[in-house]
Design brief:
Layout (H helix, E strand, L loop, with lengths): L16 H18 L3 E2 L5 E3 H9 L3 H6 L2 E4 L9 E5 L4 H10 L9 E10 L11 E10 L9 H18 L4 E7 L3 H18 L5 H9 L13 H5 L10 H16 L5 E2 L11 E9 L7 E7 L3 H4 L7 E7 H11 L7 E7 L5 H13 L4 E3 L6 H11 E7 L1 H6 L1 E6 L5 E5 L3 H6 L1
Parallel strand pairs: 1-5, 7-8, 12-13, 12-14
Antiparallel strand pairs: 2-4, 3-4, 5-6, 6-11, 7-9, 9-10, 10-11, 14-15, 15-16
Helix pairs in contact: 1-5, 5-9
The chain binds adenosine-5'-triphosphate (ATP) and magnesium ion.
The site of adenosine-5'-triphosphate (ATP) has 18 residues, from strand 6, strand 10, strand 11 and helix 11.
Amino acid sequence: MSTLKAVRGTRDLLPPETSLWNRIEATARQVFARYNFGEIRTPVFEDTSLFARGVGEETDIVSKEMYTWEDRARAQSEKPQSLTLRPENTAGVVRAYIEHKLGETGQLQKLYYIGPQFRRERPQKGRYRQFSQIGAEVIGPPSAGSESPLRDAEVLEMLAALLDALGITGWTLEINSVGSSADRARYNEVLRAALIPVAPQMCGDCQRRAVTNPLRVLDCKVPEDQPIIDALPKITDSLDEASKTHFAAVLAALDAAAVPYTRNHRLVRGLDYYTRTTFEFTHGGLGAQNALLGGGRYDGLSEAIGGPKAPGIGFAMGEDRLVLTLQSLESAPPQVADAYIAPLGESLNPAALALARELRLAGLAIELGDGSFRLKKSFEAADKTARSIVILGEDERASGILTVKNFASGTQTKVPRTELVAFLAK
Ligand code: ATP
Ligand code: MG
């Protein structure tokens, strides 16, 4: 029988790596709390039309990356339904915002999420079919100030603070404005016209995009196409006065907060729902998949999926890529317990469990050995898993004085049981 393996593009996360994942998530939760965000958890699958309408039929995600299936009806009263594993979480959050009438509170909603997303992509380093995103959204009625450029700047400043708190040094923030949906539509036509004479010299993808979705030509990475793309009209020149003023205000607030950024007029982002501010944080340690996170403003998204006017701004960070970046920056210390308890003989196993319980209740990480092991085997196991070994023989049990050996210093010490917690915690 052939052995079963995790499906292509998915993987198991094992200790000690999972402790890095937990640290990243704990840090993100702390930072989000400081900015007064609350957590939202939406379902992992949704009605397919949410993504078709919310993300956009023309995008790579919807046109080729989604895991979609026809869900059979289980009862006469049910209809079969097309369902999709979420490829991103903003559409789900905005659906929930509409469904729970969160706009009627009149307050800005500041929501964050952490969880798996699914895209049928070609697996490679930093690109998986199941991956995890940490994201946040600020959304609300215009009367709550949801359109204010201050919200954009605050989200970007929070991201800078989060990456710093995680210990990710050397990130770059690239920022652009794609204007209102009218600006975008106008620019799309300017671009379409400008591409007619040059498209035949470009790559196959660009020739197709020049017709279907000209904006996406700006994402092209083919080296030969770059001079042609650089000579195309810039979206910055198609922005109306309101969008220009908005963008200038975002940049002024970032300057005031000393958050460094680079303007990139080619940053239009893959999703159809973006308006005005778009941004990406990249990191050199990641190689080809260098985007740590992406985001932007989506003033028309709620209305596009049948909701009230609810401008918003948000981002999604690739947690897998945060892990890769941190691994490239530091050599994570292996996970080790504070102590390994070695009972000398099986008859001492119950006493060893009692001692382990006492030490664990005091907050220490304890590995419990087994009295059927020879002492040499206990020492070898302890050396791999813990900082110290605690010997528990008949004498130790009777006297209440334990023998502790610390592996780093090589010293052996007699420690009274009452002082053991303090000794091991050192
Ligand atoms: P890319 O250009 O890398 O394909 P994207 O524009 O498709 O990114 P977004 O939809 O903006 O990505 O998602 C936000 C972040 O989620 C990305 O910056 C990246 O860190 C992460 N991400 C996206 N797709 C994957 C994937 N297949 N595997 C791992 N992380 C991913
Ligand atoms: Mg992608």
